[in-house]
Amino acid sequence: MMKKQGFTLAEVLITLGIIGVVAAMTIPTLISNTNGAQFKTAYKKALSTLNQAVLMNVALDDTDFSGMVKDGDAGTTVAEFLGARLQTASDITSQYDDEEAPTIEAYKANDDDTSNVTITNAPDVVYAFADGTAFAYNKTADAACTKTTPCYGYIDVNGTAGPNQQVTCDSGTGTADAACVVSANSIKDIFPVKYYGQTVEPASNAARAVLFGN
Fold it and tell me: Of 189, 201, 124, 130, which Cα lies nearest the Cα of 160?
């Protein structure tokens, strides 16, 4: 009689246990990397969309962010500008509240400027694009946005969906002595931006690092 070869129950359980441990260690990282790549792509697309809208506004109405007025004043407000040039955008301000909208820290000037400005939570206006990306800003404070006095807001690449966290540096600060590094699995969904004249650009060192691939 030939003896059948096979695995014992203990061997099967040990193998399954090892597979489970490896999966538990690697799957969260894979998911984070995938989300990070999606966030980065959506962020770049949103920046491009906003900048294209500004250029269209300049071409058609000869007005950019430096000519904007506060809500309620005579002239073109940022809200009116967005509504006119981003035809697919919709106002989702009511979907945000003090808990859902994050408090954002954005650098005022350049990489060597360690002072910052706080973009408070619960922004006055949040516009969502057709792809679900959102742009938030304060309509009562933002007016006559120039390079020396820019206005601030943030891009939320997935709207009110989580994690609603600002992207930050894994290491470094972005100053001349410490370059900001953001790893793929650390990219979050909130990116501070500043806008002025005909430009919308990153407003934090981490947001710049993600845009330029650092």
Answer: 189
